[in-house]
Design brief:
Largest sheet: 5 strands, mixed
Number of domains: 3
Low-confidence stretches: none
CATH superfamily of the largest domain: ATPase, nucleotide binding domain
CATH architecture of the largest domain: 2-Layer Sandwich
Strand order of the largest sheet: 5-4-3-6-9
Distance between the termini: 27 Å
Shape: globular
Strand content: 15-25%
Order of helices and strands: HHHEEEEEHEEEHEHEEHHHHEHHHEHH
Structural class: alpha/beta
Radius of gyration: 23 Å
Bound molecules: zinc ion
Amino acid sequence: MDVLEPLRLAAPTLSARTARADSAAHRAVMLSTLARLVAAGTAVSKADLVQAAGLARTTVSGGVDELLARGVLKLDGVRPTPGRGRPADRLALSPRGGQVLIADLGAHGAHLAAVDLSQRVLAHTHVDVEVTDGPEPVLDVVESSLGALRGSAGPVRALVIGVPGPVDGRHGMPVRPPIMPGWHGYPVSARLSRTFGCPVLLENDVNLRALGEARALPADQAPLLYVKIGTGIGGGVITSAGVLHHGADGGAGDIGHVRVRGGPDTQCVCGNVGCIEAVASAAAIARALGESVTIADVRALVARGDPTALGLVREAAGLIGEVVATLVHFYNPARVTIGGSLAAASDELLAGIRAVVYRRALPLATRNLVLANTVLGRYAGVAGAIVLGIEQALSADGIGSLMSHNP
Ligand SMILES: [Zn+2]
């Protein structure tokens, strides 16, 4: 999983100057600001931090010394300074700060990983689970496998879990997920938080992929839309600041149930007819190819260039392209990333979507638009979870537990 490193972490937007100088809350904001500026690569020395955080030299010096003493930061060589000054100590996130656990659940399996706060992947594995089995047996497997992965690499600072359905992130539970029977309202975050004794973030799987892609690319590739085309169809929205846009209730980007004109009136799992997911997903293509055709068969047929399967992929690409063209007009993204198992199987899908988008959308929305396949592939979700987990651990809320730990 070396391909994942290094991901861009967000620099804090809140200036430490705004909080009261004497309170514990101020101290947490100040330490979090310093650690996140280093994690984001915005600052690599005390002098950089004075400028970037807008804090007094003595405050920065004291804060950095504390972060070094607690094993949150480490010295990482020296950086020459202009003029005759003494070379400055280079600062970096320490691998001794603890770890973040990750579970990226798909319909039929989960990528699991343990990473340290410097983004080093300590261990990772893939387990077969069926989300249709319900939350108890699936989370039993996730918990025991993550327990084995975490090893002895220090305390767990955060856990991030992605699931293939809509979630209420605030309460840490899935909300009427169409392909996850039994998961509606199940307290996923509360359960995992009890097991691992750390904050738990629950996210939609496509949102995690969108975030991972955006942070593996240069900052000018946001705003970014991620469109996943696999068994189902989903989307994720990244703002120009490089963060996830959830919408009012967490449903932003869930494009699978947008109605397409001109497609067949196929019944969708959501109860409506003619949803893009019902007419243009890998599952829809499998149905069109015959009753006993599986998703794996579709991928294999497409990969080997079967003319009937490719014809169906082109038709699907046309319908998806219409939806993407509408989204491009609405959001004016710098980049649209196409991912998912159907995109991975053949370039026909991307080519077909591109053709429609560049034909349909107006020049202002497309003149700088990059429409490309995923750069991280199947590890995009894990990458997004790494970003969320480390940013949580270094947040003003999370940094307290790091500072109370003696390395
Ligand atoms: Zn639907």
